[in-house]
User: Which sequence fits this backbone?
């Protein structure tokens, strides 16, 4: 019965418009990911880097990767930035919403109620030499 109830739960729609994401980059170009730190991808010549090219935030978790559009879901005209110091959070400089980018509430605002960041599929390929991000 619980399965049926969860299957009927309404999925929250992102306010961030759809853009085609098809990123394929060498992991060696992002040593911070190998060190377990998140990165913000920008200026990938072969693909859009998220809505309005705000960037794609990638957070490593073991052999997995989480990828989010770096567009604030509170105001889509603003890009969010990764917070330093090993914190797996990103903040909108305009509205100050802090998003979790890794952990139990990954992608959700940490300091307010709100909509989750738009998430993309991310995985390594070619014997862990390439990072692929798609929607």
Assistant:
């Amino acid at each position: 019965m619980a399965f049926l109830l969860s299957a009927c739960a309404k999925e929250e729609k992102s306010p961030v418009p759809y853009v085609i994401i098809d990123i394929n980059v060498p992991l060696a170009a992002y040593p911070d990911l190998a060190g377990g730190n998140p990165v913000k991808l920008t200026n990938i010549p072969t693909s859009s880097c998220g809505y309005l090219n705000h960037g794609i935030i990638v957070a490593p978790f073991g052999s997995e990767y989480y990828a989010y559009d770096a567009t604030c879901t509170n105001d889509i005209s603003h890009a969010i930035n990764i917070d330093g110091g090993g914190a797996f959070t990103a903040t909108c400089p305009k509205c100050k919403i802090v998003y979790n980018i890794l952990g139990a509430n990954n992608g959700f605002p940490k300091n307010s109620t709100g909509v989750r960041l738009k998430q993309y599929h991310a995985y390594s390929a070619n014997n862990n030499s390439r990072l692929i991000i798609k929607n």
Remarks:
- The beta strands are 22-26, 39-41, 56-61, 64-69, 81-82, 89-91, 98-100, 119-125, 130-134.
- The longest strand covers residues 119-125.
